Amino acid sequence: MAPSLFSTLSSVLLLTSSVSAHKSYQVVDSYDSTNFLDKFGFFVSDHSSSNYNDVDPTGGYVSYKSAEEAQSMGILKTVGEDLYLGVDSKSVLDPNGIGRSSVRIESKSKYKQGLFIATFSHLPKPVCGAWPAFWTVGNPWPDAGEIDIVETWNEDNVNKVVLHTDERIGECRIDGKGMTGTVSKPNCANFAVGQADNEGCAGLDPAAPFGSAEGGVYAMQWTDDAIKVWGFTHANAPADIATNPNPENWGVPSFTTSTCAADKLFGEAKLVMNVNLCGVAGQDGIWDSCKAKAGGATCKEWVAKNPAAFAEVYFQLKSIKIYSLKEAEATPSSVVSSQLASTAVASTAAETTVVSTSAAAETTAVVSSAAVSSAVASEKPVETVSASASAPASASASASVIASEKPIETPVETPIETPAESLTTRLATST
């Protein structure tokens, strides 16, 4: 007996549905040599302010420079197709002065959920007094969360993945299961019972490529209910990570939450990369490991008088790519099925929110296959390099990324305040 039209259409629609349900990570934004200086803003220390948060929101002995100043000093430059971000390693300073010159860049776009992959040609060498980091942060802090993807201080040759959350919004914890790293602090809440204020949860990964002169690859997956981080050397990076990433094929992550209301706890966030000096690295209980080497000097005294120690404390960034979990393109069989059924099956792609910054307005846009032009009103002006700067500017935005304006000075939000006094015991027992 020949099959009925109804049964045929049902089978076809079932096939089409099964095909369209397959999702994969697709790139929605990227940072590389064509657009680094267009897509990052610069936090510049204001030494005239009576509020030290205007100098450094995390309380370091540092003087963050504008793009132009940093380039003239050689602490911000392009090396081949990479972005070099480092710290002054020449000047002998006054320990009671304004601090060592460095760079802090912040993305003009904001992101919520997705897969973030950063490829480095060089990672900062762990030295006494240095506190380099690559992280995401929402506003306000900690209500909108913070994810420290790459971070350590002093001579700790171990990467510290740290999350900061607000327990009034939801719970987030790590228990060490399903991760290769070890648990230093289990509760991600900033005011967790039994942990120091503003400490958050921390996972330690000695196997990650942190501190490597050859660099490596770090990936962070942010979903509704989990945060995961992988660290790879270039030699052991998954074959698919550069073009068609699938975390399911990467093995056990170095860090994962065990339970986490991530969708509520982590809001739209900026990417931040900086090299700080002292701050947490100089606090009692943490600086102790370096004090003998420094001849009993304080962190500020050591950093001020030993510039050459920081010659290898720099990031050399090749690229950052942000992916969203979206429907895979239709296969030939699904196209035929759609034609037979005369029914279009709508895709329901998972959404990664991306917001780009300009002085004009604030708009939250869902990235799709069409170009999106959105903006976030800003409060604190920072400086960027124009299209005529040493790094080549992007000629145009791709069809799936956020368009960026190219003014010489583009405002971004005031950096999130994380007072130095609240960080004094942060991960003091992590080593």
UniProtKB/TrEMBL annotation:
GO terms for molecular function: hydrolase activity, hydrolyzing O-glycosyl compounds. Residues 387-431 are annotated as: Disordered. Residues 387-404 have a biased composition (Low complexity). Residues 37-286 form the GH16 domain. SUPFAM superfamilies: Concanavalin A-like lectins/glucanases. Keywords: Signal. GO terms for biological process: glucan catabolic process. The keyword RNA-binding does not apply. Residues 421-431 have a biased composition (Polar residues). It comes from the Eukaryota. Residues 1-21 form the signal peptide. This is Beta-1,3-endoglucanase. It comes from Colletotrichum higginsianum (strain IMI 349063) (Crucifer anthracnose fungus).
